[in-house]
Structure formats: structure tokens, C-alpha cells
Amino acid sequence: MDTTALRHAYRALLDAAAAVADSGHRSPPAGEWNADQILAHVTLINAATITAASAVAGGANTTYDNRIALDTWTIERVIALAGGNVGLRGRIRLQGDALCALGGPALSEAELDTLVPARLLSRDTLLVDQPLPLRDSITGLAEVELPGPTKQLLALLRDGRGAEITA
User: Fold this and answer.
1) Could you tell me which CATH class the domain 4-155 is placed in?
2) Runs of H (alpha helix) within the chain
3) Measured between alpha carbons, how far is 36 from 42 in angstroms, rounded to an integer?
4) Domain ranges of the chain
5) Angstrom distance (rounded) from CA 81 to CA 92
6) What pTM was computed for the model?
7) DSSP letter for each residue of 18-65
8) 8 near 142, Cβ under 8 Å?
9) Positive/negative CA dihedral, 92, 96, 97, 98
10) Are 150 and 13 in contact (CB under 8 A)?
11) How far is CA 140 from CA 3, 45, 72, 146, in A?
């Protein structure tokens, strides 16, 4: 499986996270996550994907469920355990390397085609509740799970009118 798009998605996310950190601006609109919460959410999604891929590689049955990545307490705990923004960015970089390896040469086509029962939510909306090929969970990172948080991070650099905030 070609993981070029996944590598680019991780690079874009980490560039956006660094820009937000460098700007010192981390206040989101009411009801939205701050930069650290967005990054913690991504680390939890990555961990769930790595867990599913590792289980498939080990011949074990597994599931893919993103609900824990939406849990506020868990998100705050991950921020604390990672040591904040810098630690979260480092973790995401390493998780991205692992997922690119798993999606690339580490797993066979048959393993990538393994159906994994999946339950995916966005906020309180159920998006998926059916088995998906493992490869879809990995490619879904590049197509949806990383671009969304990247846009959220970049929005933190803009004022309410869409103009970039300058220091």
C-alpha cells in the first residue's frame, strides 16, 4: 500500500501544530477544542489504528472504535502524560512513522484487506458501524482523520473573520 498521502497528511498536521504553537495563540472558539486537545485526539486515533494493525499482524481478532478519542477526561489525561504540546507533536510524529510502516511494507495485502468491526463517531453522530478492511482505517487517516484536525489547528491562527492573526 502506498503511504505517500499518509506521510503528507502527517507533515501538514505537524506543520499546522507547530505554527499554532509558535504563534502562542491557542484559544479556540467557544465549544471547540484547543490545540493540545486536538493533538491528543489525534494521538488516540493513531493509537487505536496502531492497535488494530498490530492485532491483525499478530493474527488476533480486533475491533476499531474511536469513542475513547472523543472522551474529554481521556484527552486531558493524554495531554498530561505526553507533557503537553511538544510531547504530543513528538508522539504524533512517531505514531505516523509506525502507521506508514504498518500500512506500507510491514503488512501484506491480505492483512490490509482483513475486515475489522468498526464503530466511528464524530461528535455524537454515528458515521460507521460495520466491518471495514484494515486498509480503510489507515487510508482514512490521510483522507479524513488528519485533514480535519489540521483545518481545526489552522483555524486557531485566524480571527473570527478568517484573517490570519499576527503577533
Assistant:
1) mainly alpha
2) 4-23, 35-57, 72-82, 85-101, 109-112, 134-140, 147-155
3) 10
4) 4-155
5) 14
6) 0.91
7) HHHHHHT---PPTTS--HHHHHHHHHHHHHHHHHHHHHHHTT----EE
8) yes
9) positive
10) yes
11) 11, 11, 23, 8
**Amino acid letter, 15:** D
CB 137 within 8 A of CB 64: yes
Do 17 and 89 meet the contact criterion of CB atoms below 8 Å apart? yes
Q: Contact at 8 Å (CB) between 115 and 132?
A: yes
- As given in the structure block, the three cell numbers for residue 2 are 502506498
Task: Report, as an integer, the average pLDDT of 83-103.
Answer: 96
- 80-90 tens-digit pLDDT: 999 999 999 99
**Spatial distance between the Cα atoms of 94 and 86, rounded to a whole number of angstroms:** 13
Retrieve residue 94's grid coordinates.
512517531
Cβ–Cβ < 8 Å for 105, 26: no
Sign of CA dihedral 70, 73, 76, 77: negative
9-55 residue pLDDT tens: 999 999 999 999 999 766 787 888 999 999 999 999 999 999 999 99
